[in-house]
Structure formats: structure tokens, C-alpha cells
Amino acid sequence: MFTSIKVNNYKYFSIVLILLSILSFFIGYIYDENSAGGGPTDFIHTWANLHTFLNNSISEGINLTTTYDPEIYTSARTPLIYIFHKLFNPFVGNEIIFRTSVLCLSLLVPFLFYLCLKQKFKKEENLLLILISTTIFLSPFFRTSAYWGNEENFGLITLLLSFLFLDKFLYNNNNQTKDYYLLFLVVFVSSICLYFDQKLAIIPLICFIQIIFSGKSHKLKFFAFFLYCIFSLPYIYLIIIWGGLIPPRDALGRGLGNQLFFYHIGYASTIIAFYLLPLLLYKSENLVRLLKNFFSQKRNYYLISIFFIYLFYLLFFHDYEDMRLMGKGFAHKTAILFFEETLFQKIYIYFLFFFSWIIILVYLSNSLKSKLIMSYFYLLSITIFPLMQEYFDPLIILMAFTFLNSKFYINYK
């Protein structure tokens, strides 16, 4: 009797949380919320980029992405989103209506996230999966991008679609015609991820590797290879006219290809761990047992020792005082907020680096696939400047519940 009452209370509380998260999302839009910062400023560039394509042909607009003029094109991403709006979005004539249209399209993210959860965790209670999917409404970067008509959420939509189609393709054993149809969708949508956001290049790579190592026929695998080659051609063309991976104006400002930022590894760890820490509660029915198992394995101590090698690098080869304030996530911001002395800031930050490294190792445990995917984000972090928290939010949570090899114990606790 007591247990039944307790479960019902959990359910009522879950429903309240779901409704509050959805309500807060729409209230934020009404009040022009800018929780991530930069929303209105980014919209100025988005609006200018959009009109570059509205006022020109698609080919002329693509050529104009090579300009250094910020009033014509300012973005590190490909112009696909603006081509999409030009061709398919009828609500581009007014700023408010356009922003509302992007808000409506952004609602696909929590909906698709729910479908992914439903597909991956088939035996879990529906209410719990809805609760998890609506946490996306609380992401400041998802919210700000949705409110201010910006680019980020479209990459998340194609990421989730890629997982859905890939999962259906890998587990379809009955219909060969359907295999080809699903395979085309997997390759097409995962390729689009790259065009919406270059850091999502990991998505088509994951899909391709899983297709190649699946039990599907060699014809299907060759077809996948052929399709990926075809869909890569537009980006190869962009690289040629840009002279690099991103438009020349942003490449100049970010120093892409000119320098490696190894100190970003620590900051990337704190940002990633920030999102993985609460998910440790899903990794085991007993968190203490999970930690004991981790520290009982000798190979994990070798992985922990990597941190001390990295700390040696920071102490002797990195000038903390010479860093710019921009980026580096919550760790750097809270260090400045809590401490005036540089020495105490460094101690605090380096402790967070170590603590975050442990969290990530515990979370990844024995999954080689998850470790390889996480290695990609570390490699990405040392090539980009500045390193922003928004690059990982809510991406890490979505990856954890989809492409990472995560065995979760989902319950009301």
C-alpha cells in the first residue's frame, strides 16, 4: 500500500515537472529570454545571412559566404540552413514571425528525443521517458537558439533523426527493399548533420562505421559508401571556395588550423562532466558499487595517471594569466567569481579538471565505442577557439541517451 502511494506521488510530481518545463519554455519566449547570452546579437547576423540568400540566387549566396563583410555573411557553419529557409520557410518576411517559425521547428528536438528514448528503452515507463525528453526545455542554449531564430537546433534535429533511422535500419531483418530506403535516410540525414553544424561530423562517421560492421550485405555497405561520397561533394566544393573548413571570415577570427589549444582539454572535461554527472545515477542501481567497481580495476589507474601528465603540461607550458576571458565554460567563470587571487583560481580549476576526468572515466567505464566518441570531442576542443559551453549543451545529453553505449537503469528515484 505504502509503495503504491509513493509511486503515485512520484508520477504526479513527474507530471508537474513536465508541465513546468514546457511552461517555462514558452514564458521565456514571451519575455525574449536570453539565458545563454548573445541571442539578440546572433540574431542580427542570422537575419543578415538570411537576407543574403533571400536577395540573391542560391549560387550567388554561396559565393557571398566567402566575404569578410559581417553585414553580408557571418557564420562558421555552412549556408544550408539559409537555403532551407529560402526554399521551404514561408515565414521569412518578418523578424517576429520568422523567430516564431524557428521556435516551432525547434519543438521537434524534445519530440524526436522522446522517440529516440522510446526506441532505445522499449521496456521503460512512458512517463519517465517523457520526463527525460522535456529536460531539453531547460537547456539555456536550446532555449536561446529557439527564441532568437539561430542555427544550432537544426543540427540537433538531424542528429536525433540519424539515430532513429540508423536503429531501424540495423534491426530491420525482414524487408530488403526497406533496407535500401532506410539506408538512404540514414546517410542523407547524418550527412545533413555536418552541413548544419560541422562539429557534428562525428554523426555520419558513427553511422558509417556501424553500417560497415553490421551484418548487412556487402551491396548495402557499398551503397552506403557511394551515398556518403555523393553527399560529401557539396562540402568539398565549399572547402575549395573557402580555402578551409569554415568561411574565411570566421576562420580568421578563430585561428582555425593555425594553433592547437591543449589547455582546452581540461575545460572540455569540466563541461562534459557537468552533463554526465547527474547521468551517473542512471548507470547503476547502486552508485557506491559503481565507484567501487571502477577503482577496483587496475587499468583505470593508468587512465587516471594521464591527468597528472596533463597537469604537468599545464604547470610548465601554459600561461594561465595570459588567457582571454571568453569561453572555457562554467569552470573558468566560477573561478573568477569565487577567487580574486590567481593562485586560488588555478587550484580550483585544476581540481575541477581532475574531478571531471574521474566522472568521465567512471561514466564511460568499459565501453570502447563511448571512449572513441568522447575522444572526438577532445580532439575537437583543441582545434577551436573560443571553447564555449554551448558547443556541448544539450549535445552531450542527447549523445549519452542515443549514440553512446549507455546501459541505463531508469526509475523514479
Structural description of this entry:
By secondary structure, this protein is an all-alpha fold. 69% of the residues lie in helices and 0% in strands. The chain has helices spanning 2-30, 39-54, 58-64, 80-88, 95-106, 108-120, 126-133, 140-147, 152-170, 176-196, 202-212, 218-242, 248-254, 264-276, 280-283, 287-295, 298-317, 329-338, 342-364, 368-381, 395-401. Helix 9 (152-170) packs parallel to helix 11 and helix 14 (264-276) packs across helix 18. The mean pLDDT is 91.
List keywords for this structure.
413 residues, mainly alpha, 21 helices
Helix-strand layout with pairing:
Blueprint: H1 2-30, H2 39-54, H3 58-64, H4 80-88, H5 95-106, H6 108-120, H7 126-133, H8 140-147, H9 152-170, H10 176-196, H11 202-212, H12 218-242, H13 248-254, H14 264-276, H15 280-283, H16 287-295, H17 298-317, H18 329-338, H19 342-364, H20 368-381, H21 395-401
Helix pairs in contact: 1-7, 2-4, 5-8, 6-7, 6-9, 9-10, 9-11, 10-11, 10-12, 11-12, 14-18, 14-19, 14-20, 17-19, 18-19
In short:
The chain has helices at 2-30, 39-54, 58-64, 80-88, 95-106, 108-120, 126-133, 140-147, 152-170, 176-196, 202-212, 218-242, 248-254, 264-276, 280-283, 287-295, 298-317, 329-338, 342-364, 368-381, 395-401. The protein has 413 residues and is mainly alpha-helical.
Mean pLDDT, rounded to whole units? 91
**SS class:** mainly alpha
Order of helices and strands: HHHHHHHHHHHHHHHHHHHHH
| SS elements, strand count | 0
Task: Point out poorly predicted stretches.
Answer: none
Shape: globular
Largest sheet: none
* Number of contiguous helices: 21
Global Rg: 22 Å
Query: Beta fraction of the residues?
Result: under 5%
Distance between the termini: 18 Å
- Helix % is 55-70%
